[in-house]
Amino acid sequence: MPSIVIAQGGGPTAVINQTLCGAIVAARRHDPSLRILGARHGVRGLTRGDLVDLTALSESDLERLARTPNSGLGSTRDKPDPAYCQTILQALEKLDARGFIYIGGNDTAGTLDLLRQQSTGSCSFVHAPKTIDNDLMENDHVPGFISAAAFVANAFVSMDLDFRAMPGIYVAIVMGRHAGFLSAAAAGWQQAPEDAPHLIYTPERPFSVEQFLNDVDTVYTRVGRCIVSMSEGVQDEAGRPLAEVLAAGAVERDAHGNVQLTGGDLGIEIQKALKQRFPKARARVDTLGYLPRGYLGIIDETDAKEAFEAGAFAAQSAFTGSGSVVLHYDGKRTSPRIVSLDQVAGRTRHMPDSFFTGANAVSDQGRAYFRRLLPPRPDIFTPFV
Amino acid sequence: MPSIVIAQGGGPTAVINQTLCGAIVAARRHDPSLRILGARHGVRGLTRGDLVDLTALSESDLERLARTPNSGLGSTRDKPDPAYCQTILQALEKLDARGFIYIGGNDTAGTLDLLRQQSTGSCSFVHAPKTIDNDLMENDHVPGFISAAAFVANAFVSMDLDFRAMPGIYVAIVMGRHAGFLSAAAAGWQQAPEDAPHLIYTPERPFSVEQFLNDVDTVYTRVGRCIVSMSEGVQDEAGRPLAEVLAAGAVERDAHGNVQLTGGDLGIEIQKALKQRFPKARARVDTLGYLPRGYLGIIDETDAKEAFEAGAFAAQSAFTGSGSVVLHYDGKRTSPRIVSLDQVAGRTRHMPDSFFTGANAVSDQGRAYFRRLLPPRPDIFTPFV
């Protein structure tokens, strides 16, 4: 019996199961006789025959699954080599798969592109996008990003209020290995010129601890508090991640060669540097870590809707050929489109230069982008202090 | 002209301004001719004449202020000595203050008790409770705690889903210097026996890194993942905070003698210990830090309502005498009462023994307590993995 196979790869998001459910619903609608199979833990499940039959999933289960954050099918960071690809292709053939929909980031798209190149069968390979890093090429923004950005924006308004109440210096280390979108989204709810974040450091601009301390000094003297958003992937002039430099080579890499940044080490070094330079100030560094990326309490409605639609579009596309679903913005509306896999696979989208003002601030254009994506900022009171 | 003076002390909460607004509204209602004054940055504002007139605050400003997290009047950690107290008392007399309402934790209650003892005038001293630590004596629970607990409960459901999708070990370091309520609240939304958190470490039970690693080993082997909630104030057998032991004496104390725990140092040590013991496992330590304590995105409605009522009750009480407002639970409803300041001042409420099962788990009774306080757990789907 012909089938559609769906899997999830890489890190989770708050809405990755919306995409899964969108794909299930659209595949069902297209051909009610199809078997819809989910592979547990990404391509690994395919190679092991570890599959779950999603064909008869009830409406109420679909609804509950859709609003549950993090990969419902499980995930993997396996990076298939040619032999691994052959095993996957054989598994897909055995399942009479008409399409393989893989929900993930640029590594996931890379896996699909490899499969497509090696495939001699008729199965299509469709990438459905997700990542909190927002770093997929050809996308205006990526499903999963808005919810994570909303988490971060809420955190920065909160910390601004906290440090108005008792002055000091606060640094939040935010996920983002190569792209600074999530750290910069902290600026999306800025209104007054003195609203946090006062400084933003991303992987796109070289970072030095010395310059950072000078920047903090300037803001702290002027505003009386200093709230900083820092990507865990900030790099020195030579392009080496600071966390890697600080860990003095004792870093780990995953199967895709990505350095495993914990952010925690970076945070400790930043905390030490602040303590030394500002011994009398209240200085605190928090590593937001995994919290923003699949937080049950902050799931954005637009994000959920777009993620569902991207999944549905991926399933529809699977009946005509391979490709990568991207979110296109026409100046008014966001809608899914399809591009070739190699336009997305293994490539990283960085924050455009126009989103920056200098090395430590987001431009008006950048802020406008994040404001367009984020839900409206809650109407709060400006404190008496 | 007679006045009521209100101030906020200590760390912020998500609903501390609800209490402020409750006090304003009730004071106004009691005597519309009263001046209602806010002292900026706690008692410090009184000594400096740094006051804001709240008498004519509009309804819409009150509504917006109430729903804004973190101290709107600013805060302080100043611990007045007898001379400092005299300056405060003179300031209150000059303002013709009939009552001084100070919103804060046990240190704040301590300041008020000192003022009451030294006062020769007719001003009453009323403590309105707030703390995310939930550690005030005589209270069933404390305004500010539920919102922080909801933040933590959401985090643990999310991390459980994350680590179902990709197995590993996760530790969240949660605020809590002497009392483990906030860390233990992570268990409030547990349903199935294998739901996170799998291990909970609080200051109430002695902690050793060796035992912790053995506990993790047991859970990780059995469940395939291990999610841990750890108070930043965990202590060794001798009662020394682990963060203090690890920092080898290089700790700082605030004016109240409280050790300044960042959680970050503890997190790094825990991360190192996990890496050594479980070199092949995905292991991550995040320090939630300041996030749960005044997060704009997670403000619990019950918490907001109770905080407002506590403030209103404090203002009403101020017209009859000094005391500390506490939240009483009669088995069905929570309502404010007043007790004497010395019942709360400078004392710490710990988690009762009945809330524990062994050294690393919350009992059914403990879980029931947290479940009663928390909003209903979102109805999510149990993943396929």
UniProtKB/TrEMBL annotation, chains A, B:
<feature type="site" description="Important for catalytic activity and substrate specificity; stabilizes the transition state when the phosphoryl donor is PPi; prevents ATP from binding by mimicking the alpha-phosphate group of ATP">
    <location>
        <position position="107"/>
    </location>
</feature>
<feature type="site" description="Important for catalytic activity; stabilizes the transition state when the phosphoryl donor is PPi">
    <location>
        <position position="130"/>
    </location>
</feature>
<comment type="similarity">
    <text>Belongs to the phosphofructokinase type A (PFKA) family. PPi-dependent PFK group II subfamily. Clade 'B2' sub-subfamily.</text>
</comment>
<keyword id="KW-0479">Metal-binding</keyword>
<keyword id="KW-0324">Glycolysis</keyword>
<feature type="binding site">
    <location>
        <begin position="290"/>
        <end position="293"/>
    </location>
    <ligand>
        <name>substrate</name>
    </ligand>
</feature>
<keyword id="KW-0808">Transferase</keyword>
<feature type="binding site">
    <location>
        <position position="232"/>
    </location>
    <ligand>
        <name>substrate</name>
    </ligand>
</feature>
<protein>
    <recommendedName>
        <fullName>Pyrophosphate--fructose 6-phosphate 1-phosphotransferase</fullName>
        <ecNumber>2.7.1.90</ecNumber>
    </recommendedName>
</protein>
<comment type="subunit">
    <text>Homodimer.</text>
</comment>
<dbReference type="InterPro" id="IPR000023">
    <property type="entry name" value="Phosphofructokinase_dom"/>
</dbReference>
<keyword id="KW-0418">Kinase</keyword>
<feature type="binding site">
    <location>
        <position position="106"/>
    </location>
    <ligand>
        <name>Mg(2+)</name>
    </ligand>
</feature>
<keyword id="KW-0963">Cytoplasm</keyword>
<dbReference type="GO" id="GO:0005737">
    <property type="term" value="C:cytoplasm"/>
</dbReference>
<dbReference type="InterPro" id="IPR022953">
    <property type="entry name" value="ATP_PFK"/>
</dbReference>
<dbReference type="Pfam" id="PF00365">
    <property type="entry name" value="PFK"/>
</dbReference>
<dbReference type="GO" id="GO:0046872">
    <property type="term" value="F:metal ion binding"/>
</dbReference>
<dbReference type="GO" id="GO:0047334">
    <property type="term" value="F:diphosphate-fructose-6-phosphate 1-phosphotransferase activity"/>
</dbReference>
<feature type="binding site">
    <location>
        <begin position="175"/>
        <end position="177"/>
    </location>
    <ligand>
        <name>substrate</name>
    </ligand>
</feature>
<comment type="pathway">
    <text>Carbohydrate degradation; glycolysis; D-glyceraldehyde 3-phosphate and glycerone phosphate from D-glucose: step 3/4.</text>
</comment>
<dbReference type="GO" id="GO:0006002">
    <property type="term" value="P:fructose 6-phosphate metabolic process"/>
</dbReference>
<feature type="active site" description="Proton acceptor">
    <location>
        <position position="133"/>
    </location>
</feature>
<dbReference type="InterPro" id="IPR011404">
    <property type="entry name" value="PPi-PFK"/>
</dbReference>
<feature type="binding site">
    <location>
        <begin position="131"/>
        <end position="133"/>
    </location>
    <ligand>
        <name>substrate</name>
    </ligand>
</feature>
<feature type="domain" description="Phosphofructokinase">
    <location>
        <begin position="4"/>
        <end position="295"/>
    </location>
</feature>
<keyword id="KW-0460">Magnesium</keyword>
<comment type="function">
    <text>Catalyzes the phosphorylation of D-fructose 6-phosphate, the first committing step of glycolysis. Uses inorganic phosphate (PPi) as phosphoryl donor instead of ATP like common ATP-dependent phosphofructokinases (ATP-PFKs), which renders the reaction reversible, and can thus function both in glycolysis and gluconeogenesis. Consistently, PPi-PFK can replace the enzymes of both the forward (ATP-PFK) and reverse (fructose-bisphosphatase (FBPase)) reactions.</text>
</comment>
<dbReference type="InterPro" id="IPR035966">
    <property type="entry name" value="PKF_sf"/>
</dbReference>
<dbReference type="InterPro" id="IPR050929">
    <property type="entry name" value="PFKA"/>
</dbReference>
<dbReference type="GO" id="GO:0003872">
    <property type="term" value="F:6-phosphofructokinase activity"/>
</dbReference>
<feature type="binding site">
    <location>
        <position position="11"/>
    </location>
    <ligand>
        <name>diphosphate</name>
    </ligand>
</feature>
